[in-house]
Write a structure and sequence with these properties.
203 residues, mainly alpha, two-stranded antiparallel sheet, elongated
Length: 203
Amino acid sequence: NTGFQIIQSYLAFGNGGVFGVGLGASRQKMFFLPDAHTDFVFSILSEELGLLGALSAMALFAVFLWRAFQASFRAEDDFERYLACGIASLLGLQVLLNLAVVMGMMPTKGLPLPFISAGGSSLVMTFFMTGILLRIGRRPTPWAAPADGLLDRGNGMGGLQLRGAANQVGGPLPAQRNVISGNAVDGIQFQGVQSKPQSIRVT
């Protein structure tokens, strides 16, 4: 019985070939491969969808991790940046360890494959961490001033500097200038300023 589980995993990979045996038509999951619905679900996926399906699944995981790290790089707060980076690293390491186990490169660890393996608490926590990543990634990027320089961030809390027509907080905006409507920068609300001098009130 030595190596029975990993041998059955190899058979699943071999039966799949390039295009697979068809979705739901796996034979190894019929009590031949233990834990076929949890730890070794990637072997069944490869058998049913073939090499192309396995590579597609790996590509989707790569895109997910790339977007997760991108969200961490965008975060303005250090806590959110480290949190997003930690979640992305945790999920990425879990994916790599699971793939290494089912391919026989590491001993069995009992780690499920995120989003695919059947499970209760593991799947719930994976969705929970994904929700945190989505929340961090939805934060808008810092407002960038145009090339000619209309607005620039100040060094103080809620500070804003005007360049061009005025160099002080609350100065008039130059004429014939459009300001983005409805966007708040450090507590300052822009309300459709256009084609005439206006002032900005600091809250």
